[in-house]
Specification:
This protein is α/β, with parallel strands linked by helices and 572 residues long. It is 34% helix and 21% strand. Strands 1, 2, 3, 4, 5, 6, 7, 8, 11 and 12 form a ten-stranded mixed beta sheet that branches. Strands 18-19-17-16-13-14-15-20 form an eight-stranded mixed beta sheet, sandwiched between helices. The protein has a two-stranded antiparallel sheet with strand order 9-10. The N terminus and C terminus are likely disordered.
Length: 572
């Protein structure tokens, strides 16, 4: 049987529109003609007027923070098809392989099967793969993980496995349900675009916690809201930002309208208006208040139910308003931090702030250092915040501030962390995977190092409780590092684990918060450890007997030089 030639209509249309990095001319006609979200039902803007602005947006990076079920996934799946037909490889990402499989089978495959030309493009693209048998080609190029669509390839991957995120080169990435994705792996997905001229990024999700995940992306964007104009007072309104004042009754009938005039607003006549039009990231916020399939009465009933439980209020904010909501899961907020900021500046050495100095270090590609002084007559005050790449400079900072004790996490730089403890004394490494707090000594027969094993949640609770109770204060809020520290502290968010217990979220950018938790641990552990000047445990709380100076070559060198080999340089 002779293989038919690839139908040119769709490929030529998309390739022409995507040439030289452009993409939007022809996309809306493509949507209206070839996309069928349901059998015998073509995609339409009727009832979804708010999607026109997004469909016509030419930005490389588009972010959509949204409520539930507003048609955005269908829009971006259609764009993925359009991008591939233009000769560009695309990747669609969800959090798990199971969810991705269901999405492809339930959403994408029916769209392809419902249109004759799309079906032909997938079939003929599959048949063009060289060097494979026809049976093998079909298995590889048209399944739930990979599809050959015209001249390009679409990948459907999860962020569970780093290999899935790092193995393909792409021209466009579609990150769906961003709030559920692993933050570190999502960042690696962006690296798939490094060698592309197109570099399209699409981030779409319901929100979760304020300032995190999709809300972080939206806050950095131009922040566009779909706004309606009142015919009486001529004022523009973003319904989700004026809720619940935009919801009212007129003669017993629930309506959504102008909070000022109580005139009904027409959802189909809105416009996208940006708060920060000069920002390069194009961000959209969209709520169910504009949706075509939920009435004002249904919204009013859901809002009334939300008053009874925090879980229902959270669901209403996320699924109806499309706004982030954390409640008690995010104990440190902007409001709390505004009440816990002082008027002192950061000092690179011992400052005039009274009290003994304690420090915490969070290690990784960048070292995050937090130093606080504990005044017996008042609250503790953070006097130094710094991001460093050099361990010698870190040691200098600890010396300059005359730190009495510091705690440094053991992973991922365990060797260097131990060297720091040996060089300065008065330090300990911490393992945050224990079930209870315990103290021990590592390398006891050679060069002893203090170690603390703690429950991670309890350790973080220590700094959260200190800030909440007013026992720990931050410096001037206008300082750049203080602002970064604030953002990290707000990222201390609890999720429920498989056992039903709440644990602080991992693998997120909260390094200053972890360093502050280590600093509080240093202060709390000082009495139990009773560190001698040389940094060795003494006293009944640590071990049953003192540890003598080990007779190793390295110890003798330390005694001679006043520092370990790693920190050999004298600091003046």
């Amino acid at each position: 049987m002779k293989t038919p030639s690839i139908a040119p209509e769709l490929s030529e249309l998309a390739a022409e529109a995507l040439a030289a990095g452009g993409r939007r001319e022809g996309f809306l006609p493509f949507l209206l003609r070839h996309i069928h979200p349901r059998p015998r039902e073509s995609w339409t803007l009727e009832g979804h007027e708010y999607l026109r602005g997004i469909a016509e947006d030419e930005s490389q990076i588009i972010v959509v923070e949204k409520a539930a079920q507003l048609g955005l996934s269908t829009l971006f799946l259609a764009e993925l098809l359009y991008v591939c037909l233009g000769g560009h490889n695309a990747g669609y990402f969800l959090d798990t392989a199971g969810r991705m499989q269901r999405m492809v089978q339930a959403r994408l495959d029916p769209i392809i099967d419902a249109d004759e030309e799309l079906t032909r493009q997938v079939l003929e693209g599959r048949m063009q793969l060289p060097g494979l048998s026809r049976r093998r080609r079909g298995k590889i190029a048209d399944n739930v993980r990979i599809k050959q669509i015209g001249p390009a390839t679409a990948y459907f991957l999860s962020t569970q496995v780093m290999g899935d995120v790092k193995t393909v080169d792409l021209d466009a990435i579609y990150m769906d349900e961003v709030a559920e994705l692993d933050e570190e792996k999502s960042e690696f997905a962006q690296d798939r675009l490094l060698h592309s001229n197109l570099k399209l990024q699409r981030w779409i999700s319901q929100p979760d916690v304020p300032g995190m995940d999709i809300d972080d992306w939206f806050q950095r964007s131009n922040q566009q809201y779909y706004q309606l104009r009142c015919g009486r007072c001529r004022q523009w309104w973003a319904l989700e930002l004026s809720f619940p004042d935009c919801l009212f009754q007129v003669r017993g009938e629930w309506r959504i309208g102008c909070p000022k005039c109580h005139v009904q607003l027409h959802r189909e006549s809105g416009e996208w208006i940006a708060r920060h039009p000069d920002r390069p990231i194009s961000g959209y916020h969209l709520s169910q208040l504009y949706g075509p399939r939920i009435s004002a009465a249904e919204i009013a009933a859901a809002w009334e139910r939300a008053q009874s439980r925090p879980s229902r209020m959270r669901r209403f904010y996320l699924s109806i308003l499309g706004l982030p909501w954390a409640g008690e899961r995010q104990p440190i907020t902007d409001m709390l931090l505004n009440e816990r900021c002082g008027d002192w500046a950061l000092a690179p050495s011992a400052s005039a702030v009274p009290g003994a100095a304690f420090a915490g270090i969070d290690t990784g590609d960048t070292l995050h250092l937090v130093i606080a002084r504990f005044d017996p007559a008042g609250p503790a005050r953070i006097v130094w915040l710094e991001r460093l790449a050099d361990w010698d400079l870190l040691a200098r900072r600890l010396r300059d501030h005359q730190v009495e004790m510091f705690v440094c996490d053991a992973a991922p730089e365990k060797t260097k962390a131990k060297e720091l403890c040996r060089a300065l004394g008065g330090g300990a490494i911490v393992y945050s995977s224990g079930r209870r707090t315990a103290y021990s000594i590592e390398d006891q027969e050679t060069e002893p190092v203090h170690a603390i094993s703690v429950d991670r949640t309890e350790m973080i609770d220590g700094v959260v409780d200190a800030i909440t109770a007013g026992e720990l204060w931050l410096p001037k809020p206008t300082l750049e590092e203080a602002q970064v520290a604030r953002e990290h502290l707000k990222r201390l968010v609890k999720d429920r684990d498989d056992s039903g217990n709440y644990r602080y979220r991992r693998n997120i950018e909260n390094h200053y918060a972890m360093a502050a938790a280590h600093m509080m641990l240093a202060h709390q552990s000082q009495a139990a450890l009773r560190l001698a000047p040389a940094g060795h445990f003494t006293g009944e709380h640590a071990v049953s007997k003192n540890i003598a100076e080990p007779p190793s070559d390295r110890a003798r060198r330390k005694e001679r030089d006043g520092s370990s080999s790693f920190f050999r340089r004298e600091v003046t």
